[in-house]
Amino acid sequence: MAIYRIRHCERLSGEVQIHSAKNAVLPLMCAGLLTRDPVTIENVPCLTDVDTLLNILDECGVHIQRDGTSVALWSEAPCSPTSQNLLSHMRASVLIMGPLLARTGYARVALPGGCAIGQRPIDLHIKGLEALGAHAHLTSGAITLQGELRGGSVYLDFPSVGATENILLGAVLARGNSRIENAAKEPEIVDLCKFLNAMGAKIEGIGTGTLYIEGQKQLHGCVYRPIPDRIEAGTMLCAAAMTDGSVLLRNASPEHMRAVLFKLKEAGAIIKECSSGLRISGRAIHPFQVRTLAYPGFPTDMQAPMMALALRLQGTSVFLETIFENRFMHAREMVRLGAHIRIEDRIALVNGGQPLAGATVNSTDLRGGAAMILAGMAAEGETMLQDPQGHIARGYEDLPGMLSALGADVTVMDWNPEEANG
Ligand code: EPZ
To answer: CB within 10 Å: which end of the chain, N or C, has fewer?
Structure first.
């Protein structure tokens, strides 16, 4: 699919526009299964995950109208996708379960794919929808859920982002009232609740760990602009903090990024909030410690980009990954560039400040791939980053273009496996 050529870069400067959040847009798109009226999502980023989900929704009978960066979605008679093949390509495809069940009383979905950063079961999604009255069974790699949804109480053993979204997307059309306890509080959940309320849903407790949902008979259309991508913004901040540059991130939302901003400031970066977004200047110099947690803790999606930054900092930075059990795959690739990283179970110790030299490396997953671009920028010479599965383009709209606009030398080329292997 893609190979990235990255050359050493000393200084980033200039300004870039942050796109809408992938992880906000995908659940919003699934709400197209909930209504006959068009829901229009503005400012939709150009990502392969968005295209894959649109193909899945198309198979579910959702009407799709694209106008520039706006996407309108609505469905008269939604159904489960006929071919389950696409579902195994992306994690967020599982979010069609809740709305399909609510609308039709039936959903059949293949077990989802996505980044292999952990086992990523969907037991909490199923348990939640069962608590609303669904009956679930697993056959040949697909889950079938049946039953009319009615209000119910759900307690999530872990504040899972996806499970909270799936249950919300079902409960808004369930008969009666529902409650989700220990719900996820990520900004993308808040955005989904606001969007559903704009469609006529009644959700209270937004932004807290307990969500109350009064089920409605039907929902209507709306026009909605999703929140900016806090992970794209965080990745760009890490890139800037690795160099002695000055970068303005237009449209970034500092209120969604407190944990990351705090860490970067602790590392020595100078970050200022301004009316147009965030400005970062000065090189980070101090090593740091990161423990990934559910929001408002430090986001697991920022662990890999922060590790790329840690490669430049003299001393030992410590990473404790508590959310996903296999999310240090990028560390192995960073070692190919000369990084000194020791992994012990869920802890990574990065002895930064070592000389790095360009090499051929692999993109292991979405955020790990982006982190390798940053690591390549820190390495002397040229780094070739192979991304045969197209991980990076799944979640970043033109990351090479954004970095190059700030002075980096990152280009994406067509993938030729024979050349790469030879
Ligand atoms: C969402 O994944 C994001 N994906 C992930 O972003 C993000 O890393 C993650 O939330 C955590 O913030 C999307 O929004 C599409 P979870 P999700 O359910 O919903 C366990 C990226 O790079 N769990 O909160 O899959 C699970 O195994 C991606 O953009 C269960 O045990 O995350 C994990 O250990 C990667 N059973 C933990 O909970 C379940 O039923 C958190 O998962 C569900 C989850």
So the answer is: C
pLDDT in tens, 9-30: 989 999 999 999 999 999 999 9
pLDDT tens-digit map of 220-272: 999 999 999 999 999 999 999 998 889 999 999 999 999 999 999 999 999 99
Bond from prior residue into 296 cis (ω within 30 degrees of 0) = yes
Sheet-wide strand order for 246-250: 13-17, 246-250, 277-281, 270-274
* Alpha-carbon distance values, 378 to 13, 108, 313, 408 (Å): 15, 46, 11, 10
Q: Give the closest residue (by CA) to ligand 1 atom 4.
A: 23
**Domain residue ranges in the chain:** 2-19+228-421, 22-224
Q: What is the pLDDT of residue 117?
A: 62
- CA separation for the pair 205, 210 (Å, rounded): 6
Smallest CA-to-CA distance from 113 within 79, 70, 142 is with 142
Cα 407 to Cα 140, 337, 400, 404, distances in angstroms: 50, 22, 11, 5
Q: Is the pTM of this model over 0.70?
A: yes
Residue ranges around ligand 1 (CB below 6 Å) = 23, 26, 91-92, 115, 118-125, 158, 160-163, 299-301, 323-324, 366-367, 395
Where do the DSSP E strands lie in 112-236?
A: 135-139, 142-146, 153-155, 177-181, 202-204, 210-214, 222-224
Question: Per-residue pLDDT tens for 62-118?
Answer: 999 999 999 999 999 999 987 767 777 777 889 999 999 999 999 999 877 656 666
Same fold, 2-19+228-421 and 22-224: yes
d(CA 415, CA 392): 13
DSSP state of 69: T
Q: How far apart (Å, rounded) are the C-alpha atoms in residues 198 and 310?
A: 42
Architecture of the CATH domain 2-19+228-421: Alpha-beta prism (3.65)
Per-residue pLDDT at 116: 66
Topology of the domain covering 22-224: UDP-n-acetylglucosamine1-carboxyvinyl-transferase; Chain (3.65.10)
Atom of ligand 1 nearest to the CA of 22: 29
Does residue 284 come out as left (phi exceeding 0), alpha (psi in the -120 to 50 range) or beta?
beta
